[in-house]
Design a protein that fits this description.
- There is one protein chain.
- This protein is an alpha/beta fold and 322 residues long.
- The chain folds into two domains: 196 residues, Rossmann fold (3-Layer(aba) Sandwich); 103 residues, UDP-galactose 4-epimerase, domain 1, CATH 3.90.25.
- 41% of the residues lie in helices and 18% in strands.
- The strands form four sheets. It has a seven-stranded parallel beta sheet with strand order 3-2-1-4-5-6-11, sandwiched between helices. A three-stranded mixed beta sheet has the order 12-9-14.
- It is globular, with a radius of gyration of 19 Å.
């Protein structure tokens, strides 16, 4: 199947693109390379910006994709708080242009990269898909708005979507030369590894006064290759069932910032000094997935998402880049 992968030069998109090609699909990566990397693309690369209608239309006209996987988005929570305009323009306008192009060219299957940030501060943990969606930052607001676009386009035009709400993607595929290369980096594990390798002087812990067992935030970490596998399974399920679906992707296990710090010290053998800082605006205290639905509907089972395996794969990728 020929699949247009928006944002396929980015962290998660590049891993999914690699796996699509391995499974016999023909991924076509559409990316403006503002945050992605051309050398991470194991497929045809079409430079383009979703905010430019003509560029999106040209890609559909030239490549005639049968389905879309949509990863392209700005995704730094703290930045979305200080510069919401950029997030709404980029994420919402880009998504709307993409859906309109799908409608124009008769493409009715899309897998959408959503986020646990649409839930906001959870009322129950683990968080089920039916949990109220009350984002606490503009990034989450933008992703929720796209979810609602998809639901409306499905109801009105029959556009089928698999909406996948990620929890904390982490890890790498070092044997394929794929991993996190954000600039600036905002994710905990690669930041800890930058300290371990001497690229940063210390790690920063944002908030020690949350209502968790050690006072730091709790997150559900899922290996990026387990995420990639879920995308392929979700595409098949959506097409076979001719129906949309919404799924959490996580392990159902949470780890505090301090727990991740200790495991990173153990895996790398480095001291990784850390200092305390105030909470960041827009950070919920606990995000842990109820992921039973993905297991039941997709037959999906994470195989490499224990914390040590995640950190080890990221460390192997990171040390190869230094």
């Amino acid at each position: 199947m020929r699949i247009l992968v928006t944002g396929g030069a980015g962290y998660i998109g590049s891993h999914v693109t690699w796996l699509l090609a391995q499974r016999g699909h023909e991924p076509i990566v559409f990316d403006n390379l503002s945050t992605g990397h051309a050398d991470s693309v194991h497929a045809s690369l079409v430079p383009g910006d979703l905010r430019e209608v003509a560029e999106v239309d040209a890609a559909f006209a030239q490549y005639a994709p049968e389905a879309v996987m949509h990863f392209a988005a700005l995704s730094i929570v703290a930045e979305s708080v200080t510069d919401p305009r950029q997030y709404f323009h980029n994420n919402l306008v880009g998504a709307l242009n993409l859906l309109d192009a799908m409608q124009e060219h008769g493409v009715r299957w899309i897998v959408f990269s959503s986020t646990a940030a649409t839930y906001g501060v959870p009322r129950q943990v683990p968080i089920p898909e039916e949990h109220p969606q009350l984002p606490v930052n503009p990034y989450g607001d933008s992703k929720l708005a796209i979810e609602r676009m998809l639901q409306a386009y499905d109801a009105a035009y029959g556009l089928c979507h698999a909406t996948l709400r990620y929890f904390n993607a982490a890890g790498a595929a070092p044997e394929q030369g794929l991993g996190e290369r954000h600039d600036p980096e905002s994710h905990l594990i690669p930041l800890l590894l930058q300290v371990a390798s001497g690229r940063l002087p210390e790690a920063r812990i944002f908030g020690r006064d949350y209502e968790t067992h050690d006072g730091t935030c709790v997150r559900d970490y899922i290996h990026v290759m387990d995420l990639a596998e879920a995308h392929l399974l979700a595409l098949d399920r959506m097409i076979d069932g001719d129906a949309s679906l919404t799924l959490n992707l996580g392990t159902g296990r949470g780890h505090t910032v301090l727990e991740v710090l200790e495991r990173a010290r153990a895996v790398t053998g480095q001291p990784i000094p850390a200092t305390d800082h105030p909470r960041r605006e827009g950070d919920p205290p606990v995000l842990v997935a109820a992921a039973d639905r993905a297991r039941q509907l997709l037959g999906w089972e994470p195989t490499c998402s224990d914390l040590d395996s995640i950190i080890r794969s990221a460390w192997e990728f990171h040390t190869a880049q230094v």
